[in-house]
UniProtKB/TrEMBL annotation:
One of its GO terms (biological process) is phosphorelay signal transduction system. It comes from the Bacteria. Residues 151-216 form the HTH luxR-type domain. PANTHER family: NITRATE_NITRITE RESPONSE REGULATOR PROTEIN NARP, TWO-COMPONENT RESPONSE REGULATOR. Residues 8-124 form the Response regulatory domain. This is Transcriptional regulatory protein DegU. One of its GO terms (molecular function) is DNA binding. InterPro entries: CheY-like_superfamily, Sig_transdc_resp-reg_C-effctor, Sig_transdc_resp-reg_receiver, Tscrpt_reg_LuxR_C, WalR-like. It comes from Stratiformator vulcanicus. SMART domains: HTH_LUXR. Keywords: DNA-binding, Transcription, Transcription regulation.
Length: 220
């Protein structure tokens, strides 16, 4: 556990005001040092690669289609970085995906700043941190030694890749755009789309988009 060294932190949130406030407040805590900030998810991957921070605070406020894609990218480019998500009360599918991606914590924005600094020091010390309201929606699986949803979303049957494809399609992207964004072939994206619709028993893209909104995977 880091005790004598400061926790080096990268902050990413779409709202500049939030980023600047968090940077200022966290830097007042002797345990923390903010090494970089950004409002762009793609830029957060570059900054994580450059700075190799102890912790990455990633805002989930606006359900942008790339919000979860960058979690895997950051884990790949900066393996030692612990990722903490923060945002409003999230739909089950958002929490489910956060758990699948093995993020280290989730802090709700109705918590105090002290909860956020506690989360940072906890995850850097090798623990996980979830706001009490979120923890009440989880159960711990001792066999897998991992947290899971008490009541899985209907979307839990989809793989992480299928969730990425569904989120992008629900945001109005074409198969060609999804393929380009995820570095897949159009044939592969079409195959994912077919499997998604088959698993969910959905028959057209309009119904698919409505379902994704209703389940909280994307914002209206």
């Amino acid at each position: 556990m880091i005790s004598t060294q400061q926790c080096r932190i990268l902050i990413c949130d779409p709202h500049r005001l939030i980023v600047e406030l968090l940077e200022r407040v966290l830097n007042l805590d002797a345990r923390c040092s903010v090494v970089a900030t950004t409002t762009e998810n793609e830029r957060s991957v570059e900054l994580a690669t450059e700075h190799q921070p102890d912790a990455v605070l990633l805002g989930t406020a606006d359900s942008r289609p790339d919000a979860f894609t960058v979690v895997g990218q950051i884990k790949s480019s900066s393996p030692r970085s612990q990722i903490i998500l923060f945002g409003d009360a999230s739909p089950d599918i958002v929490l489910d995906q956060a758990l699948r991606l093995k993020t280290s914590g989730f802090v709700l924005t109705n918590e105090s700043i002290g909860s956020l600094t506690d989360a940072v020091t906890s995850v850097v010390g090798g623990e996980q941190y979830f706001s009490p309201e979120i923890r009440n929606r989880l159960s711990f699986d001792p066999m897998r030694r991992a947290w899971q949803m008490r009541s899985p979303s209907q979307l839990a049957s989809l793989t992480n890749r299928q969730l990425e494809v569904l989120r992008l399609l629900a945001h109005g992207q074409s198969v060609k755009e999804v393929a380009r964004g995820l570095h897949l072939s159009e044939k592969s994206v079409d195959s994912h789309k077919y499997r998604i619709m088959s698993k969910l028993n959905i028959h057209d893209r309009v119904e698919l988009a409505r379902f994704a909104i209703r389940e909280g995977l994307v914002s209206p």
